[in-house]
Structures are given as C-alpha cells and as structure tokens.
Amino acid sequence: QQPQRRRPHRHTARPPRAYDDDEDDLFDAELDEEYGLKDSERFSSPATPSGAATSWRNRNAANMEDPSSYVGDFDDQEGGDPAAKVKRSSPVGQFFRGSRKQFENFKEELEQWKKTPSGIRWLHVKDKLYPQDSIPPVGDATVSYARLLELLAQRRVKRLTILNEGRDAIVEVPVPNCANDFSYQEAIEGDVSAREPEMIYCGEAPEWSMEKDRFYCPLPGDLWRDDRFLELCKANLPRKGEDGKIAKDSRLVTDQCYLELVVHQPDYYWMTMGRVGGISKPFGTLLIVQFLLTLWYRNKKRKEEEMRKQKDYFRKSLAKAFNVKGKGGETKSTGVDFDDVAGVDNIKSAVSQVMEMLVSDVSFTKAGVKPPRGMLFYGPPGTGKTMLAKALAGEFKVPFFACNGAEFVEMYEGIAAERVKHIFNTARANSPSIIFIDEIDALGKRRSAFSDDPGVQEREQGLLQLLIEMDGFRPTERVLVIGATNMATDLDEALLRPGRFDRKFFIDTPSKQNRFKILEVHAKNRPLIPRLGHPEHDDGDALLTETARITPGFSGAGLENLLNEATILAVRRGEKIATMDMILELLELQSIGLKQGGLEPSEPKRRLALFHAARAIACVLTPNATRLKFVSIAVRKKDVTGLVFDLLDATDEELRWWDVLYLDRISSEGDFSVFVRSLLPLCVGKAAEEVFQGSGSISQLSSADMAKACELGSYLLARTELGGTLAKGNPADREKQLKYLVSWARDESSDFVKVHRNAIGVLASRLLEDRDVYVDEIE
Fold first, then answer.
1. What Pfam families does UniProt report for this protein, alphabetically (predicted)?
2. Confidence of residue 227 (pLDDT cuts 50, 70, 90)
C-alpha cells in the first residue's frame, strides 16, 4: 500500500444530514475533502470496490440532496427560526450562499483534477518531497507490542503504519460499533450452519464514517523475523474463494476490520530536496520582500529625479549655447560670421571695436577703461539684428548664449529672476562671452506703479534681477549683453541708462546699395539666381541690381524671402534660372495680392472705370509725377485695385512727387503754373465725373481726392514760395490763396478731360474687361 496523504480526523459514525445547528461536524468533513481526506482508489480498503472510493458528497448522492435544498426544507418545518429565514433571504445571505457554492464547485473541480494522471503524478511527487506530511499524527496514547499482537488477533487494527525502518509503528483502531456498516447487508449463500440459519454478513464500513483511535507502539528490532506478527498480518487480510466472494473464514464479525499495512520508507534524495525547499521558503519570502522594496525604492528615486528635473527645468534658463563644449565634447557654432551679414558695415565696425575691448586688447584694461556692459539693437523687424549678434559671436569665437525675453516669464513666481541669475552665472563661468536676449521688451518693459497683475509682477522681478546682474553689486566681468527689440521706446529707463546698455544702434531698412549687397550674400548659395561670376549664368549682376532698385523699403529678411520664392518658382516651372519677370510677379503678388475676379457689369462699374482712367492718364502726362505702374479695377484683397505706383525710395532721393516738383520747380511756364499742375492728378477725377456724368455729379472717391488736393495745396503754400509772400502771411489770406489755387486746378482739370476725352474712354473700356493696363499701353 502507498503511504496515505492526509491528516486523519475523528469522524462521528452517523449519516450526513442537512445544515442544522450542528453544522460544524459536516463542515469539518468538507475541510477533510479540501485537504485530501477522502477514500481514493489508492488508499481504499481491499474489501471496498474501487468505484466506492469517492468523496463524501458523491457517496451520499442517492440519500442526500443538494445542501441548498435542505435549507429550504428546514425552513418549511414547523418551529423554523423566522430570523434565520430573513437572514437567508437577505442579499447578504444570498451573497454568502453564492460564495459557498462557488467554493464547493472549486473543491469538486480540484478533487476531479487529483484523479487525473497529472494530479496523481503531482501527489506522488509531493509524497516524495514531504514524506512527513503523510505520517498521521499521534497523541500520548501508547500500546505495547503484546497489545498490538492481541489487537491483530482480534482483527481490530484498521491501519498499521511502520516507521523508522521497523522501529516504531502507529496503530489505528476503530471505536467499538464503528467498524461495520449495517446499512449495506448481504445474505450469506451456500453452506450455512444449522446452528446459525439467520446469519447475515455486514461488510466493513467506509473509512470516512469510521471513528478510530490512534496509538504509538514501539516495535522490537527483529520485527520482520517474528513469524507470529507476519502470520497475524496475513490473517487480517481478506481472502476470496473460488467464486470470487469473501471466504467464510475471512468474513468479519462485529467490530472487526481488514488491515492496511503501510511501510513508511522515504527516499532520502527526494526528502532532502523537500527539506531544502522548506528551508528556502523563508529565504524566498525575504527575496520577494527585498525585490518589492527595491522596486519601491527605485520608483521613489525615479519620482524624485523627475521632480528635481522639473525644478531644474523651471529654474534653469532656456538659452541655447553656441561655441561652448557640450557633454560629448562637441562645440556647436553659430554658423554665421561677418561675411554673411551685409548692409550694416558701419554697425559692424562699431560692434567689432566693443568686442576687441572685451576679448583681446589689454591696453584698455591698463588704461583703466571699463568695457561696455551692453549693446542694444533696435529697429524695424527683419533688418538683421539677430543675424548681426550671431555673426559677432561667430567672428570672435566667443561663447554665445541666445534666448528670448518671453522665455524668462512663467506662471510660477520667482522663475524669471532664477532664470536670469542662471544664465548670467553660466556666462561668467565661460567668460568672455555674449548673452543675447531677443525681444528684450518682453522682459524689460517699462515698470508701472499701478499694476497688480501677478504676471506683471513676475516680469518686473525678472527685470530687477537683470538690472542687478548688468550693473549692480556684481564685480566687473567680461560678459557682454546684447538686446534686440522693435520697440525701444517701451523699455525701462533704468535699463537704457549708461552702465547697462552703453551702446545703442538703430538698424533701419537698407538703402539701394545695401540692398544690393544683401542680395549678393543671399544669391551665393542659390545656383538659379544669375549674378556676376556665376559659372553658367553670368549677367553682370543685372538681375540683382534691378531687384535692389525696385524693392525700396524691403528688409534683409524680405529680400532673402524674395530670392527664395523666385528660386521656388523657377524650379516649379522647370526654368534654368530665375528671371526678372518672376521677380516682378512675386513683388506684385506680395504688394497687391492675387486677382480675385472683377465687379459685376453695372453703371457704378462704368463710372469707376472712367474715374480711374482719367487719373491714370493725368499721372502719365503730368511732369515729375509719381511713376505709375499699371491701373486696374479688378478685385484684389476684397477691394478694387485702382492705380498702382512704383515704390519710391527716399534714400535714392526719389521723394514724393510734390517734393521732387519743389526741387525742380524752375520751369519756363512759371512757378504758379507748375503749382497748379501738381494738383491736376487729384482734381481730374471729379472733372471726369462732371464731363461724362453731367454737372453736379460727385462720388466718395472724388471727394476724397479733393480733400487730398486741399491738403497738398496747404502744404505747398506754407512750406514753399510757390504761392508768393502772400502765403506766408495771415492764415486768412492763406485760405483765400488756397481757394483760388484749387479753383484754378479744377478748371485746368476740366480742360484736360475734354482734351483727352477719347483716350479716357478707350482706357475705361479696357478696364471694364478687368484687365491690368500697364503704363506702356497707356502712353
């Protein structure tokens, strides 16, 4: 027989019943099932069929219904506890009853698995690893070896477990009246003695219903040589006759049972493995605890590191460092030097002198000269302020820290001051160096005593820290601060005083010559732009010269974008080079926009065409007037195009047309005649409406032009000598002179329209076709 794997328990020999007040015994039986205390096939008695070795619930399925049904039957009995009924019908009772059913289902599935080959193999392995678990416990009760032989002779021993190589034994003896099962009776057939005609054989009771006593018994050393012991053991085993039934001399009487001999001989190899596993359990638990503590500690450190990085992110400045060795030993340059900056030659020489004092020339230091602490670049946007600062750092190869004024201000209080302090400390550690703050007006705006906005207060704290760092309690260091802004008038006065921003440079839009130099710089790396010295398309800088002439008011960024768009247009059209027509097309697109169609044919459209046709012809035929480019009444940018003039460049002495008229006012026609002709392009629109529409016709456009004519006449009378000494006297006399002048200009305009009536009509008809009529066609 295999060693039994269970902890024996004393059971009361009584049939199972429903859940009543004595429910503990039944629950103990269920616990026995959970821990394997059942009659399996391996541990069944030889007299018990293999099919009878089932669990307690399966054995009594024929005599016992589901436990839940007993609950209902018990409740229906008289004297049932009403409170128990309420408890069982409550949601809490239903929950526990459902959990109990799930627990029972799980136990049944586990028991079924133990009967499978894999479950049986696991039980074998477990018995080998932990043989001590299969030894039934015993109390203080002890029997002698003689008493053991007596019990064997009486067939009273159910199980005999021999331990320690035959030196000890555990004896299990059924309690009287618990060894036989009287519910299963079998009449004896065959040879029946006449003295016992009514003899009935009762088989051995199942072990789960058999209550037993357990004793410890010391055995002699020559146990296996004791013939009487071995004969008694054989006599206690069931013997079957030829018919397959229990032999007569082997049948049991009351309180007798068949013997199960269990020899406990563990495998020391497996037992050692089990002991090692048992010893390693606490160490495994400690390892798991240590692993969990390590995970917790690492997670805590990671969170602390993230919080520290977040604090450092808000505390450190966001400036980009150039010409400074990084973590990998690499140095990132600005990529710009003075050769890449054009059009600001005078400013380049001035800032170079400042950098020479800061970097290399020690003669200034010996002379006690304090180098400038800051330079301010201000002017229109796109004029190269940032490019000049980068070129300065690239030319002298000094550390350069570039940041934006808006990067200092955050929603948290004190961040602006911390970032200003951090960037200055970094620059001092890498001196001589340059700190460039673009859009410094976001940080250094003028302070106000009437603002309670927290955002303004945070910005002002950053400004105060900047003032202290530039010229406060800090010693003199070789750190140059360069600020760039488009709104120098909004900066705080304390920031602009000497000792902080000592040098201020205004960078305006470039002149014609400087525009040409800027175009030369940006055309070097564009092979589709023809220029002087181009390997394939050398045009002697004709394209760049003409582009510089027709782009007054363009900044350096605007000129670079123009060449870039021209290159894109040439590539898109498959051209080998960019032409002047492409440049003009792009300029027209940028200035007046794309044509979006025309107005619907109507009488107001015809009057608008006549109005603009008369103005266009007057501008073409008036000497020294503003150069007209084309005229159109097509819709662009949600408005009628009208007259489009060439851009004037004041740096090229191409002033407003009345200023040019003032400079060239010497004429054979006389001063007053030239004065009147200067008002002709503004008065001709109203004259055209009166000639073509009739006297008294007026529109909003003509009224606006007449107001401009009065403004121009007042300017010329007050600032020039064209009106004579009368215009410089009493303002009342000046008003009379202006009224006379405008009346004369209106008469001249009427005569002009009548003379050129046919030309105005032809031009108006072309404008009605939504065409762009250029000046060559008008002439």
1. AAA, AAA_lid_3
2. confident
